[in-house]
Design goal:
The complex is a heterodimer of chains A (572) and B (238).
Chain A (H helix, E strand, L loop, with lengths): L3 E12 L3 H12 L4 E4 L41 E2 L8 E2 L9 E2 L18 H4 L1 H5 L9 H15 L24 H12 L5 E2 L34 H11 L4 E4 L2 E8 L5 E8 L4 E12 L3 H10 L24 E8 L19 E3 L14 E7 L29 H9 L3 E8 L8 E9 L5 E6 L4 H20 L3 E2 L48 E3 L14 H20 L4
Parallel strand pairs in A: 1-2, 1-10, 2-7, 4-16, 10-18
Antiparallel strand pairs in A: 3-5, 6-12, 8-9, 9-10, 11-14, 11-17, 12-13, 13-14, 15-16
Chain B lengths: L2 H10 L16 H14 L5 H12 L5 H14 L14 H11 L4 H19 L8 H8 L16 H18 L2 H7 L14 H7 L5 H6 L21
Helix pairs in contact in B: 2-3, 4-5, 5-8, 6-8
Classes of the chains: A alpha/beta (572), B mainly alpha (238).
C-alpha cells in the first residue's frame, strides 16, 4: 500500500487537541502560522444538538445514565475511557496502571473537573526542600506570566488567600458554598484544617462577548453548550478558527509516528485515517506533540529510523520513564443533621465550591509531599444507581433495613442529600522505575505497537493515603457524621487507587537541562531534535498536589511563544 | 454489586466506574441505519456506534412474556402507587429492567434464576405461580427475602435474597430516574438558574450559617453579566 502524502507544507503540525494542543493552536495561528491539527477522535462541539448531553433527563436514556459504555456515566462527555475496544495496552511484572484516553476534539478537557490550580515555587523546586525526585529547570517566576494570561483568557474563579503554596491569580468571584459544604467547613475548622473557595474554570462572570456565563446546572462533565467552562474546543480552537486562523483539522486520524529526514530532523507525521483505515502523511516544519503524556511518548518511541534507532529523541532512553499519577483515595459519610431536607435547586457549578489545599509540614510526617481534599455531596439529579439500598442508613438509627412498599418512598426522601464525601488527591514522587514502553508483541487495530506499563506505588504513597483517611475521619467526627465504610486496611493499600485512576498521568518526556536524564529542554523542545516540541503533561518533572491542566496550558503558551520566536529567527 | 459500589451509588446517584466497558456491535446495513437515524432524537448525545449498540439491545428480548408479567407484579409490590403518584409499572420500570439486563448481562442469572425461585416457592407453599397468588400470599413470600442480614455481605447471602435486593434496587432506580419519580422526589435542578446560596430557612433548620467574610468574597450575581476587569494586583474591579 502506498502511503498518500499531502503536498501542503504546514508551519506546524499539532498532534492532539486537548489543553496543550488547543493552546498551541490558538497562539501559533494568531501569529499567522499555518497549522494542521491531527486528532484521533471525531469533531465535538457541545453546542451540536446531536452530541449535547447537558440538561438531558435520565429518562431520556434507556439506561438512565448508567456507565456501561462511558466510564463516568452515559451523559459524561468523554468518548473513550480506561478501556477502548481495538486500542489495548498491556502491563508487566504483575503491576497495575489504568490508562484513560478520550478520543474527540478537545480530548479530556470536555469532561474534566475544571480544578485549576497553579504550581508554586516550592512545587517546581521540591527536591531542594525534601531531597526527593528532581527540580524543574524552570521556576514559578518563568511560568507566572503565563498563568496570569491563562487566567484572563480562560477564566477561573477563586479568592486571593496569600498562601505561599497556592499562588493567587486573576480570579472571578466564587459561588457561595452549599449546605453539605458548610458542614465540611465546620468539621475541618474544628480540626484546624483550612478550607478555602475552590479554584475552577467556570465563568461565574462574563469575561468576553463570545462565551456565556455559568447557569449552575452542575453538569460541566457533560460539556457546556454556552461555553461557560473551559474546554479546548470551545475556548481555544473554535475562537482560533473564528479569528481566521489558518487551521486544517484532521479528525478521526490516529498519528502513528513522526517522520524524519536524513539529517534526523522531523519532516511531519504519518497517521491512519480511521474512516478508510489507510495511512497518510503530512509535512510540517515543526511538529508539536500534545497527544497526552503517554500517547506522545508512544508516538516518539514508535518513530524509529536510522538516525533515531531507539525512537525519536530517545537517545537517553528516558522516554516513558518517570511516569506518575496523582495519589487518590475517597471516603463517604452520613450526616444525621442532613436528613429530611427541604428540596431546592442546589446544583451549583459542576463539582465543589470549597476545598482544602495541602496544609501540613512534612517534617512532622512519615511521608513526603501533600494532598488536597475535594468535597462532594448534595441533592443531585438522580441517575442510574440512585435509590439502591434505599434504607441501609437505617442502621445508624437502630432501625431495620430492607422491606418493600410505599414506605420506601419515605426512606428515599429522608436520606436524600444526607451523604457527603471527601477525596484526597496527592503528589507521588516521580520514579525512573515507573514507566511505559512499547510492547513488542501487541499492536492496536491500526497496526500501531501499543504501550506496556510497569508501575509500583511505594510506602510514600501508601502512607499518604493512610493519612488522608485519618483526616477524613477527624473531619467527619467533628461535623457529627458517621463514616459509611471502615478505614481501608494496609492490605488494601489504605484505599490508594491504582495508578492511572486519577487521570493525572505526567512525566513520560520530562524536562531538564541534561540530555542524559531528560527528554526536553526548558522550552519543551526535544534535546535531540530541535523542531519537535511536547506541550502535554509529558514534560512535567513532578506533578505537585495540583491538577495538571492549568500548568499544561501555561507551558503550552510559553512554548508556543518560543516556537514563534525561533521560526522568526530561522533557528528551526 | 458489592457493598462499596452500592454505597457509592446512593451517594452519587450514579454507578461511576467499576462496570466493564462493552464493545459496540457492528451496524446491520440499511435497516440498522434507519434505526440509528430514528434514535438520534430519542437517544441524545450518542455517538453513531453507541446508537447502534442501543438499537441492537432493543432488537433483542431477554425476558419471556411470563417473566415480564411476573416482574411487573413484583415491581408494583416493591413500589405500589399511592394517592399522589403511580407505582413502578406506571413509571415504566419493567421495560427499564428488560433493557438493563441486556446492557449489564451480569444481572441475568440473578434475575432470571430469582424469578424461577419465586414461582417454585409459590408452587411449593401455595400450589400456584407467584403472579396468580393473592397479595397476602405474595407478601408472605417476600417477607422471607426482603430483609437481608446486614452483617453479611450481599454476595454471600442466599440467591433469593440477592435477587430481591437487586429487584428493589432496579425498581427504585427505575422509578426515581423516571419523570414521575423525580417529581415525587422533589429534585428541583437540571435547569438554568442562578445559584445565590442556601435559603435562610434551610440554614436555620440545620443550625448552620454563612461566614460573613467568606460570603463577601463570593459572586455578586447582579454583576454576573458585567465583563470582568482586574487591576495589576489581580483585584477584580467590576
Amino acid at each position: 500500500m502506498q502511503i498518500k502524502e499531502s503536498s501542503t507544507m504546514y508551519d506546524v503540525i499539532i498532534v492532539g487537541s486537548g489543553a496543550g494542543g488547543g493552546m498551541a493552536t490558538k497562539i501559533l495561528t494568531e501569529a499567522g502560522l499555518k497549522v494542521a491539527i491531527v486528532e484521533a477522535g471525531p469533531h465535538f462541539d457541545p453546542q451540536n444538538p446531536k452530541q449535547q448531553t447537558q440538561l438531558k433527563w435520565p429518562w431520556e436514556s434507556p439506561r438512565r445514565g448508567a456507565g456501561t459504555v462511558r466510564a463516568f456515566g452515559e451523559y459524561d462527555n468523554a468518548y473513550g475511557g480506561w478501556d477502548i475496544e481495538g486500542e489495548p495496552y498491556t502491563r508487566k511484572n504483575g503491576t497495575k496502571f489504568d490508562w484513560f484516553r478520550s478520543r474527540m476534539l478537545g480530548g479530556r478537557t470536555n469532561h474534566w473537573g475544571r480544578i485549576s490550580l497553579r504550581f508554586s515555587e516550592r512545587d517546581f523546586k521540591h527536591k531542594d526542600i525534601d531531597g526527593h525526585g528532581d527540580n524543574w529547570p524552570i521556576g514559578y517566576e518563568d511560568v507566572k506570566p503565563y498563568y496570569d494570561k491563562v487566567d484572563k483568557l480562560i477564566g477561573v474563579f477563586g479568592t486571593k488567600e496569600n498562601l505561599p503554596n497556592e499562588p493567587d491569580g486573576y480570579f472571578l468571584p466564587p459561588p457561595k458554598p452549599r449546605l453539605h459544604e458548610l458542614f465540611y467547613i465546620k468539621g475541618a475548622k474544628k480540626a484546624n484544617i483550612p478550607v478555602i473557595p475552590s479554584r475552577m474554570s467556570m465563568l461565574t462572570k462574563k469575561i468576553n462577548q463570545d462565551r456565556g456565563v455559568c447557569f449552575y446546572c452542575s453538569q460541566c462533565s457533560r460539556a457546556c453548550s454556552v461555553h461557560a467552562d473551559f474546554s479546548s474546543g470551545t475556548c481555544l480552537i473554535f475562537p482560533a478558527q473564528k479569528n481566521g486562523g489558518q487551521i486544517d483539522l484532521f479528525v478521526n486520524c490516529m498519528v502513528r509516528e513522526v517522520t524524519t529526514n536524513e539529517e534526523g530532523k522531523a519532516t511531519g507525521v504519518s497517521y491512519i485515517n480511521k474512516e478508510d483505515r489507510k495511512e497518510y502523511k503530512l509535512k510540517g516544519k515543526v511538529v508539536v506533540l500534545a497527544a497526552s503524556a503517554c500517547s506522545s511518548a508512544r508516538i516518539l518511541m514508535n518513530s524509529k529510523s536510522k538516525q533515531h534507532p531507539n525512537g525519536l529523541g530517545n537517545g537517553s532512553d528516558i522516554i516513558g520513564h518517570y511516569l506518575h499519577d496523582s495519589t487518590g483515595s475517597s471516603r463517604a459519610a452520613f450526616v444525621p443533621d442532613l436528613v429530611n431536607r427541604k428540596t431546592y435547586n442546589e446544583d451549583g457549578v459542576g463539582g465543589m465550591h470549597v476545598y482544602t489545599p495541602w496544609w501540613l509540614d512534612n517534617k512532622n510526617l512519615d511521608f513526603p509531599r501533600g494532598y488536597h481534599i475535594e468535597v462532594w455531596g448534595g441533592m443531585g439529579m438522580p441517575s442510574y444507581g440512585f435509590g439502591f439500598n434505599p434504607n441501609d442508613l437505617n442502621k445508624f438509627f437502630g432501625l431495620k433495613a430492607g422491606g418493600y412498599g410505599d414506605s420506601l418512598r419515605k426512606d428515599v426522601k429522608k436520606y436524600y442529600g444526607s451523604v457527603m464525601g471527601m477525596s484526597g488527591r496527592g503528589e507521588s514522587i516521580a520514579m525512573k522505575d515507573n514507566y511505559c514502553e512499547i510492547d513488542p508483541t501487541t499492536v492496536d487495530e491500526f497496526g500501531i505497537p501499543v504501550l506496556r506499563f510497569n508501575y509500583n506505588w511505594t510506602d510514600n504513597e501508601r502512607k499518604q493515603a493512610k493519612h488522608m483517611h485519618e483526616t477524613f475521619e477527624e473531619v467527619v467526627h467533628n461535623m457529627g457524621g458517621e463514616m459509611l465504610q471502615e478505614a481501608p486496611s494496609k492490605e488494601d493499600d489504605y484505599g490508594l487507587l491504582a495508578p492511572g485512576r486519577i487521570i493525572h498521568e505526567v512525566g513520560t518526556t520530562r524536562m531538564g537541562n541534561d540530555p542524559k536524564t531528560s527528554v526536553v529542554n526548558s522550552h519543551q523542545q526535544l534535546h535531540e531534535v530541535d523542531n519537535v516540541f511536547i506541550v502535554d503533561a509529558g514534560p512535567f518533572v513532578s506533578q505537585a498536589d495540583k491538577n495538571p491542566t492549568w500548568t499544561i496550558l501555561a507551558l503550552s503558551w510559553r512554548t508556543s511563544d518560543y516556537i514563534i520566536e525561533q521560526l522568526k529567527q530561522q533557528n528551526i | 454489586m458489592d457493598r462499596r459500589k452500592s454505597i457509592k451509588s446512593i451517594l452519587l446517584g450514579t454507578v461511576a466506574g467499576g462496570l466493564a466497558v462493552s464493545g459496540c456491535k457492528p451496524g446491520t446495513g440499511t435497516e440498522g441505519d434507519n434505526v440509528v437515524a430514528d434514535g438520534a432524537e430519542q437517544y441524545f448525545g450518542r455517538t453513531p456506534a453507541e446508537l447502534e449498540q442501543i438499537a441492537a439491545l432493543n432488537a433483542e428480548q431477554f425476558f419471556n412474556e411470563h417473566e415480564m408479567s411476573t416482574l411487573a407484579v413484583l415491581c408494583d409490590l416493591i413500589l405500589p402507587a399511592n394517592s399522589e403518584y403511580g407505582g413502578a409499572t406506571d413509571a415504566g420500570v419493567p421495560d427499564f429492567i428488560e433493557f438493563m439486563v441486556k446492557d449489564i448481562p451480569d444481572m441475568q442469572p440473578t434475575l432470571r434464576g430469582g424469578l424461577m425461585w419465586l414461582d417454585h416457592k409459590s408452587n411449593t407453599d401455595f400450589n400456584s405461580e407467584f403472579k396468580s397468588l393473592n397479595e397476602t400470599q405474595q407478601k408472605e413470600i417476600l417477607d422471607t427475602i426482603a430483609y437481608p442480614d446486614m452483617e453479611i455481605p450481599n454476595n454471600e447471602r442466599p440467591l433469593e435474597i440477592q435477587f430481591f435486593t437487586l429487584m428493589r434496587n432496579m425498581t427504585l432506580t427505575g422509578y426515581y430516574t423516571s419523570q414521575m419519580g423525580i417529581k415525587d422526589l422533589g429534585y428541583k435542578g437540571n435547569t438554568p438558574n442562578v445559584w445565590d446560596g442556601i435559603p435562610e430557612e434551610v440554614l436555620a433548620q440545620h443550625g448552620v450559617s454563612y461566614d460573613e467574610e467568606w460570603i463577601a468574597k463570593c459572586v455578586d450575581q447582579s454583576q454576573r453579566n458585567v465583563i470582568a476587569k482586574w487591576d495589576e494586583e489581580g483585584n477584580l474591579l467590576t
